[in-house]
Every structure is written in C-alpha cells, then in structure tokens.
Design a protein that fits this description.
The structure holds 2 protein chains of 2 kinds. Chain A is an alpha+beta fold. Chain A has 3 helices and 16 strands. The longest helix of chain B has 34 residues. In chain B, 41% of the residues are buried.
C-alpha cells in the first residue's frame, strides 16, 4: 500500500522539476557570464626611421579561442621613458590590422634622448573584454646618407651611416646589413645587399633598370629589424635609369563622356534614313486623307 | 465605300467577333485581368521593398526579367520579318496570317521592354537614360533601336488595317459609339479610290523594306549587349546572327500558335487552312535547323578553345546536377522534335505542328535563361561572398508572378485587339482569289499534262 501523502508530495516534486531545471540553467549561464575572465592582450612595439621621420608602430592582438585576432579601434598610448618616469607623446587608435601608428615629434625626440638613445613605450589600458598590455623598446638614433658616385664608366651607390657619440657624429662600427631597393609599380625591387664597413658601403648601380621618361628613379637603402637601431631607411633620386618613351594613351572614346565622332555620325545617318521613311509614310497617310476630301468634293 | 457581296459575306463572318463576347471569352478576360492585378501586386511589393524581393544579387544581376525581355523582343520578329518578307515577295497565302503576325510584333515590342523597367532599380531615374545616355553604350543603342522598331511596327500594323477601318466605318457594327468614332477617325477617309490604293500600296511596300533590316538590327543590338561584354558564354562574334535566327524561330512558333488558337476559337478553318500550317511549318524547320547549326557551332568553338572560364560555363551546362536537362531540352529537343514532326509526313498535321511550335517556343525561352544565368553564376573574379544566393540564382515568387503577368498581358492585349479589329484582313481576303479551287485547277492541269506525256511516250514506243 502506498501512502497517499507521499504520492501527493512526489507529484508536487515532479510538477516543479521543469521549473527547477530552468532556474538551474539560468543560474549556471549567469555565473558563467559573470565569471568570464578578460582575455590577455599582446602588444608589440616597433620603431621606424624613414629619412628624418620617426614612427612608432604598436601591434595589438589577443587570443580568442585557438587563434590570435587583431584588435581594431582600440587606443594605444605612446610615451618616452626618462629617468624620472615617462613623458606622454600622444595616442593613436588601432586599425583593422591591429596597428596603432604614431609619428614622434622631432622636438620631443631631441629633448628626451640621451646620446642619441631613446626609450619608448606603448600602453594599452585594456577594456572589460581585454586585459591591459604594454611593450617598450630602446633605440639608438642612426643617420644614413645615400649618394651616387661615378668613376669612369662605373656607376656606384654610396651609403654612409653615422651615430651620435657625445656631441659629434661618428661612423658606425657595427657591420650592419644594408639592403638596397628600387620601387617598381607594386613592390620594392631588390638591387643589392652588403654589410657596412667602417660606416660605409658601396655597391654598383644597375644600369639596365628603366626609369621614367627622363630616366629618373628612386633608390632606397634599408636596415631592417635591427635590435639597436630599429628599422631605418633612406631614399634618394637619380636620373641614371633607362629613359622610357612617353606612353601615348590612345583615346578610344568608348570610356569617355563623348562618343567617337564616327559613331555619332553613323547613328545620325541610320536614324535619319529610318525616320525619314517614317515621315514619308505618315505624309502618305495624310495624302490619303487629302485625297478623300478631294473625292468627296468631286462627288458633290 | 462600295463593297461587293464577297466582302460583305466575309465581313459578316467577323462581325460577331467584334460585337459580342462569349461566356468563355468573358471568363478568359476575367482570368487575364486577375493575372494582371497579381502582377501589379508583385510590382508593388518590389517597389516598396526593393529588389531584395527578387533572386537577383550582386553577382547574378540579371534574371527572369531579362530572359523575358529577350524572349518577347524575339517573338516580335513574327510580324516584322515574316509579314514584311511575305508581303514583299507577294506570297499568295500570306493574307490570313499577316495581321496576326503584325499584332504579335506590336504587343510583344510593348511588353518586352517593360521587363527592363522591372529589372532596373530607381524607376524615378529612368528619364536619365534619355538625358544622360552615352551613345557609345549598347544599352543606349538598344533603347533607340527598340523605340524606332516599335514606332515602325505600329505604323506597319496601321497601314495594313486602314482598309478594314474604312470597311467598318461604312458598315457600322453594333458596338459602343466611341468605337465607331475611332473607326471613322482611323480610316483617314479612305474610300478605295485608285489614287488612295496606289499611295497605300507604295507606303506599305516602303515600310516592308525598311522594317526588315530594322528588325535584324534591333536583335543584333540586343545580342551585342552580350557579345561586347567580356563574359564567358557571351563574348562571341556570332551572337548577333544567332540571336536573329533564334528570334525568328520563336516568332514563327508563336505565330503558328496564334493561328491555331484563333482558328479554333473564331472558327476560321476556311481561312487558315492546313496549307498555312504546312508552309509555316517548313519555315519553322528551316529556322530550327539554322538555329541548331548556330548552337552547335557556338558550343563546339567554345569547348574546343578550352578557355578556363568558358569551360566553367560549359561544365555547368553539361552537368546533370546543374543545367544539363534544361540544356538538353533547349538545344536538342527544341530543335529536333519540331524538325521530325514537320518533315515526317506521318506526324504532320495542324495539331502536331502547333505542338512542335509550342516546344520550339518554350525551348527558346529556356535557351535565353541558359544564356544569361549560368554565365553570371561563373564570375571572372573569385567570389568574396559565398552565400548560396550570391552564387546560385533562383527566381522568387515576385519574378514568377511578373513573368506570368507579362504573358497574361500579351494574351490580354492580343484578345482586346482582336475584339477591336478583325483578326484577319477582311478587305485583303475578299479581293483574293479562291486558292483552294485554284490549286484544284493547277492539279488537274498537271495531271492532264502528265497524261499527255504518257500517251506521247506510248506512241513513240509503238
């Protein structure tokens, strides 16, 4: 025999089970949402010196699942680090590649560098979703000068590199690898690579490269990813390229606002012929009408 | 205008058509009007919600609307070429079918371009086409050519109807007064004087000469819109003649179907005879063979060239899971079946020729679909968006409704015109000889000549 009270109690419990599980699921989801940890962000800083412009590039990314994603549209603060703390340079937002690019003001660089050496830092303050991150680097200022020399028939590219030592510029003693390029339509075309010797490097100038219509071409020399100097590049123009004949673009007219004249004339002639016939036929119909009036008058 | 008893008899035969409408006719009219309003609703949906309600997307930018446009412009050839050529060659059996052909031309040339308006967005800017159209664009050529062609076709139909307007003016039918007034105005006072006859004949001859090259040009321009585009399956030098032949083929098919329908409905067996079906059937066979030749030539060249993108389109056409069965129908059944039906005497009769025409017309509609859609589904650049509706086109109910509505409009306009003017040129028919008795006489004469020859050879042989 079953106890009726127990049966009623069991029925009540059974009826309340769906509500219980629903509440449990909601609670679990809420806890999960509440307990979601911010994702760790990564911040890497690079230094570029392009001619006399100094540029900092911070790349911001975070690991979502198994993959790293670039963080877009987040502010990154750039500072110069000095003995007493840091001096703010400004901030820049990251683009779709997660890159925040900032050009260092020349006067700030001169003011806060010691013997040509400057420390930079990039700080991402973080958000609810991403943890803060920062990165720093120290670079030594390097000055490169690109010139062209010609001895008899041989044309050469001459590059000198100096750095500050106290108040004076001295040639670089380190054997840095210098890459030389010529810009082409879509990319940089490498023309040579050689290491510095006593702050100087000479490579032969390629004589078979096309320039513009006057033979002008640009030569770029680069130091890439160096731990001491960062990325440094310098460029200079020279008219030693092969002069190209001026490309005269033939005007087909089809892409222009105005149609080619032959097409306009053809269309006018064709349409005139057809519509002249139409007009003549409509005139014939008028003649039929006129003729009926004449016939009517004669019959009267 | 005095008319003889034969003309009066012929007119009497057609007067009931103009004066009254049978219950079947009223029901047909109501259905067509309902179909028309279904189209109006679909258009309302498209205008209010935008082209997103169609299956057209960034990649497949042309769909059923352009298919229908080419189809209707194609069948407009029935009047322009067939009636123009038959008139110029003074083909004796042309009279009963010539008006139907001309009406097909006018109606389909009105309906066809309507689909262009449905296809382009921003109808409020349509006048920009006239204000800012670039003459070097084939689209502008098309606008100019179709406008000119439609004008010529309307004048051609009118010229061929003036005499019947005069007939109806002088023999008033029991219809609304405005209709009799229209007959009077449109008859232009024509009273069959020798001078009027001469002017009318000269004008008709002249327009027949002009309308033939114009019709060829219109469809060539339409073909050039495709041929001048660097797309696989379109960029072909033979597209213009190919389109012209396909157009006349479908136009002839529609003319045969119109003959079959009106012969049944208006009981015109004594005017539209088996001879008309046979002769037009022969024309259909000739055009079908020519169309088959062009199709073979087009795809063979494309296949042999093995250009990557052309091959992609060909693979789609020959893939049984893609377009193969439609391609098989359009390129094989649509060509071979009409040829077999008409050329084999055992199969050749009025109903079978009408059936062959139906197959040809439907095959040509499918062919236009296959020209447009598979090419647009095979883009020259890789896709950035791989959503299925971007890669594969499938028409929506809005497009199907507007398609059916366009076909309904074709029937509606044809039906209403046949209620306004006799579907067969009464004056023309009345003045022609009785070709049935003439044929009988020619047969008898040939038989006599044959008998004479047989007798002569018997005498020579002793």
């Amino acid at each position: 025999m079953y106890n009726p009270i127990i049966i009623i109690k069991m029925k009540e419990i059974k009826n309340s089970l769906p509500t219980f599980f629903a509440l449990l699921a909601i609670s679990l989801l809420s806890f999960q949402a509440m307990g979601q940890e911010p994702v760790k962000s990564r911040n890497s800083l690079e230094y570029y010196k392009i001619s006399e412009h100094r540029v900092l590039k911070a790349t911001l990314k975070a690991k979502e699942g198994r993959n790293y994603i670039f963080l877009q549209d987040f502010p990154v603060e750039f500072n110069i680090v000095i003995d007493t703390g840091s001096v703010s340079l400004g901030s820049s937002n990251t683009n779709e590649s997660g890159e925040a690019i900032f050009e260092v003001p020349d006067e700030m660089f001169r003011l806060h560098s010691t013997n040509g050496v400057t420390s930079f830092e990039a700080i991402f303050a973080g958000t609810e979703r991403y943890k803060p991150s920062e990165s720093s680097l120290e670079v030594k200022d390097l000055k490169m000068n690109l010139s062209f020399t010609q001895e008899e028939e041989e044309k050469q590219i001459l590059l000198t590199a100096t750095e500050l030592n106290g108040d004076e510029s001295v040639p670089i003693s380190e054997e840095l690898e210098i890459n030389f390029y010529v810009p082409r339509t879509f990319t940089l075309f490498p023309i040579g690579s050689k290491s510095l010797e006593s702050g100087k490097v000479i490579i032969p100038f390629p004589v078979d490269l096309p320039g513009d219509t006057l033979g002008n071409m640009e030569v770029i020399a680069k130091i890439e990813g160096n731990d001491t100097y960062g990325n440094v590049s310098v460029s200079s123009a020279i008219n030693w390229g092969l002069a190209q004949a001026k490309i005269v673009e033939t005007n087909r007219g089809l892409g222009d606002t105005n149609a080619p004249l032959w097409m306009v004339y053809t269309l006018i002639v064709l349409l005139s012929v057809v519509w002249f016939h139409y007009m003549y036929i409509l005139y014939s119909i008028y003649l039929i009408k006129k003729e009926s009036k004449k016939a009517l008058a004669e019959n009267m | 205008m005095n008319i003889d008893s034969k003309t009066q008899r012929t007119l009497n035969k057609f007067i009931p058509q103009l004066e009254s409408m049978s219950k079947f006719g009223i029901a047909f009219l109501v259905i067509l009007i309902l179909i028309f309003f279904a189209g109006v609703y679909a258009l309302y949906v498209q205008l209010t919600e935008g082209h997103i309600v169609t299956g057209m997307r960034d990649q497949v930018v042309w769909g059923l609307f352009i298919v229908n446009f080419i189809f209707f412009i194609g069948i407009s050839y029935a009047g322009a070429l067939i009636s123009g050529i038959l008139h110029l060659l003074r083909v004796p059996w042309r009279s009963p079918i010539i008006r139907m052909a001309e009406i097909i031309t006018v109606v389909s040339t009105i309906i066809g371009p309507t689909y262009i308006l449905l296809c382009v967005g921003r109808l409020d800017r349509v006048h920009h086409l006239l204000l800012f159209g670039r003459i070097q664009s084939p689209i502008t050529w098309d606008v100019i050519a179709i406008t000119t062609y439609l004008s010529g076709s309307i004048i051609f139909l009118y010229l061929a109807t003036i005499r019947d307007f005069a007939l109806l003016r002088d023999n008033p039918v029991k219809v609304a007064r405005w209709r009799n007034w229209f007959y009077k105005v449109l008859s232009m006072g024509y009273s069959e004087t020798p001078k009027q006859k001469e002017i009318l004949a000269r004008a008709t001859d002249l327009l027949s000469i002009v309308i033939i090259p114009l019709a060829i040009l219109v469809h060539s321009v339409l073909a050039w819109i495709f041929g001048m585009t660097l797309r696989p399956g379109w960029h072909s030098t033979i597209f213009a003649p190919y389109f012209v032949v396909a157009a006349v083929y479908s136009g002839t098919g529609v003319l045969i179907l119109a003959m079959w329908v009106f012969r049944k409905v208006y009981k015109l067996e004594s005017y539209i005879t088996k001879i008309h079906f046979n002769y037009l059937g022969y024309i259909l066979v000739m055009l079908g063979a020519l169309y088959g030749y062009f199709t073979f030539s087009e795809y063979l060249t494309s296949w042999y060239g093995s250009i990557k993108w052309d091959m992609e389109v060909l693979h789609r056409l020959f893939d049984p899971s893609d377009y193969w069965w439609w391609f098989f129908f359009a390129a094989f059944i649509g060509v071979l079946l009409p040829i077999i039906i008409v050329t084999v005497p055992r199969f050749r009769n009025i109903n079978s020729i009408a059936f062959a025409s139906l197959i040809a017309v439907f095959a040509l509609w499918v062919k236009r679909y296959l020209i447009i859609i598979p090419t647009l589904e095979a883009p020259l650049l890789p896709n950035h968006d791989l959503r299925p509706e971007f890669i594969h086109y499938s028409p929506t109910w809005v497009e199907w409704t507007l398609t059916v509505s366009g076909v309904g409009m074709f029937f509606l306009m044809f039906f209403l015109i046949s209620k306004f003017i006799p579907i067969i040129p009464v004056m023309k028919i009345s003045e022609e000889k009785d070709y049935n008795s003439l044929r009988k006489k020619v047969k008898e004469r040939n038989l006599r000549r044959l008998m004479k020859q047989v007798r002569k050879s018997d005498t020579v042989n002793g």
